[in-house]
Specification:
The complex is a heterodimer of chains A (137) and B (145).
Chain A: E1 2-6, H1 12-24, E2 28-30, H2 35-39, H3 48-58, H4 60-69, E3 73-76, H5 90-101, E4 105-108, H6 118-123, E5 127-128
Parallel strand pairs in A: 1-2, 1-3, 3-4, 4-5
Chain B: E1 2-6, H1 12-24, E2 28-30, H2 33-39, H3 45-55, H4 58-63, H5 68-77, E3 81-84, H6 98-109, E4 114-116, H7 126-131, E5 135-136
Helix pairs in contact in B: 1-2, 5-6
Classes of the chains: A alpha/beta (137), B alpha/beta (145).
């Protein structure tokens, strides 16, 4: 399967691990730009304004929409962030929305978080992996 | 122009007013599913709001056949622009809810202009809203050309 991995840069290490695991099982994987640099500690943690600047400069939202369009499934690595359990950030939420309207399978690494857009996340009916990537077939 | 109005359904009255206003100026306008139900007297807005505050609206969403998110994606795809009615809600000035954030992203990736009736709110996803570079109307719908 062609799988697009989504998540916050705070989950960069987990995203790299998931990429490795799924590639070894024959899947083709896309991860967010700079994930590897963040995972290796070569980039400072995202700051509010830097984050906006990055997105504007590289048009990340559009880029990810196109990638999801070409994919079979989306995997969200929603680990805890800043005290938020199973955090799904704004960008990731949008990517899930794209996957939903484009009729792609949606996998979530951890259960749906309690956030402002929990209702919408429930509508997407993701397959919850509870940390077990082998459930992706 | 073909315009899709986006906004929290608790602003249904305002959505219907804006629709009328835009139609008078020759635009063709689409509105949210729940607002249509409200307009047709098929939904009690006060009851809906009370239930949403208590336990979200997932039960309502599951009870209707229409996938409201997919419906709006389809409408936005066929539109020329979207208008977001971001009024104050739950003590948040110029509130943009999750669904509306997503609709703005649909418009953005489909290259449709985004009009915001009020400035961008301070919310956890302000960054994403800024990214989408909306035109701020400051309450003046006649600026939509």
């Amino acid at each position: 399967m062609k799988i697009v991995i989504c998540g916050s840069m705070s989950a960069s290490k987990e995203m790299m691990n998931a990429k490795k695991y799924l590639k070894e099982r024959g899947h083709s994987i896309e991860i967010p730009r700079n994930t590897e640099k963040y995972a290796n500690g070569n980039k400072p943690p995202e700051k509010h304004f830097e984050s906006t600047k990055n997105k504007l400069e590289s048009n990340l939202i559009q880029d990810y929409y196109n990638k999801i369009k070409e994919s079979d499934a989306v995997l969200v690595i929603n680990t805890d962030k800043n005290g938020n359990k199973n955090y799904v950030g704004g960008n990731t939420f949008l990517e899930l929305g794209f996957a939903h309207v484009l009729d792609k399978k949606v996998y979530m690494y951890n259960p749906i978080p309690d956030m402002l857009y929990t209702d919408e996340l429930l509508v997407f009916q993701p397959t919850i992996l509870n940390g077990d990537l082998s459930k992706i077939k | 122009m073909k315009i899709v109005i986006c906004g929290s359904v608790i602003f249904s009255k305002e959505i219907l007013e804006a629709k009328e206003d835009l139609e008078k100026n020759g635009h063709q306008v689409d509105i949210p599913y729940v607002t249509i139900k409200y307009k047709n007297n098929e939904l009690d807005l006060v009851k809906y709001k009370r239930q949403k505050e208590k336990q979200g609206d997932i039960k309502y969403r599951q009870s209707v056949k229409t996938d409201m998110i997919k419906r709006y994606y389809g409408l936005i795809k066929e539109s020329d622009a979207i208008l977001v009615l971001n009024y104050d809600k739950n003590k948040t000035k110029n509130y943009v809810g999750g669904s509306v954030l997503m609709e703005m992203a649909f418009a953005y990736v489909l290259d449709k202009p985004i009009f915001l009736v009020n400035p961008i709110p301070k919310m956890s996803y302000s960054d994403e809203l800024i990214d989408m570079n909306p035109t701020i109307l400051n309450g003046d719908l006649s600026k939509i050309k």
